[in-house]
Amino acid sequence: WLSLLLVFDFLTGTVLKTYEHALSAVVALTFFIPMLLDTGGNAGAQTVAIMTRSFATGDVSFKNIFKVVKIEIISALLLGICLGIVAFFRGLSLGVDINISIVVGITMCLIIVLAISSGVFLPVISKRLGLDPAVLSGPLITSIVDIFGLIIYFKIAQLLIPQLRNM
After folding, report:
1. Which residues contact residue 106 at a Cβ distance below 8 angstroms, ignoring those fewer than 6 apart?
2. What is the CATH number of the domain that holds 121?
3. How far is CA 84 from CA 14, 32, 136, 163, in A?
4. C-alpha to C-alpha distance for 49 and 134, rounded to whole angstroms
5. What is the pLDDT of residue 91?
6. Rg for the chain, CA atoms, rounded
7. In the Cβ-directed half-sphere of 72, how many Cα atoms lie within 13 Å?
8. For the residues of 61-80, what is the DSSP string, one character each?
9. Which residues contact 135 (CB under 8 A, 6 or more apart)?
10. Which of 8, 16, 51, 83 has its CA 20 to 30 A from that of 45?
11. Which one-letter DSSP state was computed for residue 167?
């Protein structure tokens, strides 16, 4: 299992290598990578833990899963917006360009939505496949957030930072 996760971690490095030009052109983008990925990983891991526990206690079942998913997605959007605003102001507090702060804020919002959504669906899929959600979901969530979080970050940066638009 850890070998498979290592392959996912290779993909994270590949994403960074792919966007090396963006990091070289706008070094300030590197300042926020740990904050974005760690916060996303934490949100996803917390959601996985809650969902796994809820399945174990019977609070969540396949009978009420759609209601639970709806509530979690709404919560993810609200939390993503709140944390995105905080991340935006963190960027400003470091004195980086406002476009970078906007990129960081939007990315934080989207990573939180990605992480919480994944944190809901991974245990559901695991349970449906007859696998232990605690074993599969927890470690996998951080790799998913790392890979897709970086892609989201760099794509938004390419859209909003003028010197990255043609890269």
Report:
1. 84, 156, 160
2. 1.10.357.20
3. 26, 12, 28, 23
4. 7
5. 97
6. 17
7. 26
8. -TTTHHHHHHHHHHHHHHHH
9. 1, 126
10. 16
11. -
CA–CA separation, 22 vs 15, rounded Å? 11
Q: Write the CB contacts of 97 (distance below 8 Å, at least 6 apart in sequence).
A: 28, 161
Structural domain containing residue 92: 2-164
Q: In sequence order, what DSSP letters do the residues of 92-138 get, joined into one string?
A: HHTT--HHHHHHHHHHHHHHHHHHHHHHHHHHHHHHHTT--HHHHHH
- Tokens 């891991």, residue? 45
pTM beyond 0.90: the answer is: yes
- Which residue in this structure is represented by tokens 């939007």? 106
Do 52 and 123 meet the contact criterion of CB atoms below 8 Å apart? Answer: yes
Contact 8, 147 (CB under 8 A): yes
pLDDT per residue as tens digits for the range 29-83: 999 999 999 999 999 999 999 999 998 899 988 899 999 999 999 999 999 999 9
- Angle among Cα 151, 159, 9 to the nearest 5 degrees reads 10
- 14, 152 Cβ separation under 8 angstroms: no
Query: What pLDDT is recorded for position 85?
Result: 98
What's the N-to-C CA distance of the chain in angstroms?
Answer: 36
The answer to whether the CB of 59 falls within 8 A of the CB of 122 is: no
**Structural domain count, the chain:** 1
